[in-house]
Write a structure and sequence with these properties.
alpha/beta; about 40% helix; 11 helices; single chain; about 15% strand
């Protein structure tokens, strides 16, 4: 147990959003870092192991800095500040306050990295023409890619966004579903619609879909095309075959960017069929202009229980092997 750290915050009007309703933000920091936090007036006293108290101090300072800039802070932002404040190895670490430089502002929200790997992912998206984002559900792979695509479109860096998914799900076939082709494939592409509506006003999404500035299509519709001046995202890429993956990657045209996301622990292909995502990661390792970011269970930014669920499945599967 190290000597306690005492912080004093000058602007008392920010204490309520800093501490959270009924001090829920402080309680969450205590839970995540294993420290004890006591607030009295404008002061906060942090007691616990040395590295944990320093992390709590940095997290509180980061949240306070956001509030002073007029930004809204919720529990998710507090959790992100804690993750970014925790000690990391020198490999791919992300500076706590430097993360703000990677933020993306769309018409409806401001999107900033909430883990070190999310920061590395946004950096890779800015620097590379092709990026693979691989890891468990809930790590922001698709959401951040869509945010970057919307930013590129609205700033004029690309002329259109193309969002695609393989129409493959466990236990179902498209032919068994009612309706025309669009009605058949829309349920598979719904998560991409959700991300778009989170970034842009509804009327903007509708208008851009109608004009073709935003196109959402199953992977099968990509064959034979060249995607010039476009930002293309292939989601759920673990469900592509090696041939489908090669087909998609070779659609890359002049002035375009491409992002491929997937979770190799959730492959719904027929038994014995190798995932095109796994095949591409192996074949393209070390190729110049390609960035690869591998997310971990610790990067899950949905409900905290999601991370524990992923851990439990991994532990069970590891024991079986």
């Amino acid at each position: 147990m190290s000597a306690p750290i005492v912080l004093a915050f000058d602007d008392t009007s920010l204490l309520s959003p800093l501490f959270g309703e009924h001090d829920r933000h402080l309680a969450r920091i205590e839970q995540m870092l294993g420290v004890a936090i006591v607030s009295r007036g404008n002061q906060v006293r942090i007691q616990g192991p040395h590295s944990a108290t320093e992390a709590a101090r940095d997290a509180l300072n980061a949240v306070y800095a956001k509030l002073r800039k007029g930004m809204n802070v919720d529990l998710g932002e507090v959790e992100a500040a804690v993750r970014l404040s925790q000690p990391r190895s020198s490999e791919g670490g992300l500076d706590l306050f430097g993360a703000e430089g990677l933020a993306i502002t769309t018409r409806k929200r401001r999107v900033a990295p909430r883990t070190a790997n999310q920061g590395a992912y946004l950096k890779a998206l800015k620097l590379n023409e092709l990026v693979f984002g691989v890891g468990p559900a809930g790590t922001g792979k698709t959401y951040l890619a869509v945010a970057m695509a919307v930013d590129a479109l609205t700033s004029g860096k690309v002329d259109r966004i193309i969002l695609s998914r393989p129409a493959v799900e466990a236990g179902e076939r498209l032919g068994f579903l009612p309706g025309d082709m669009r009605e058949k494939v829309d349920p598979y592409l719904r998560p991409l619609y959700d991300a778009l509506y989170d970034m842009l006003p509804g009327e903007q999404v509708t208008k851009r879909l109608a004009t073709g500035e935003i196109e959402i299509a199953p992977l099968a519709f990509m064959r034979g095309r060249t995607l010039a001046n476009a930002f293309a995202i292939l989601d759920e890429a673990q469900n592509t075959t090696a041939m489908q993956m090669k087909m998609f990657l070779t659609r890359l045209g002049e002035g375009s960017r491409m992002v491929v996301t997937g979770d190799l622990s959730q492959v719904d292909l027929p038994p014995g069929t190798r995932s095109g995502l796994a095949d591409a990661l192996e074949a393209l390792e070390g190729v110049q202009g390609i960035g690869t970011v591998r997310f971990l269970n610790q990067d899950v930014v949905r409900h905290p229980l999601v991370g524990r669920i992923v851990d439990a499945y991994d532990a069970r599967d590891g024991a079986k092997k």
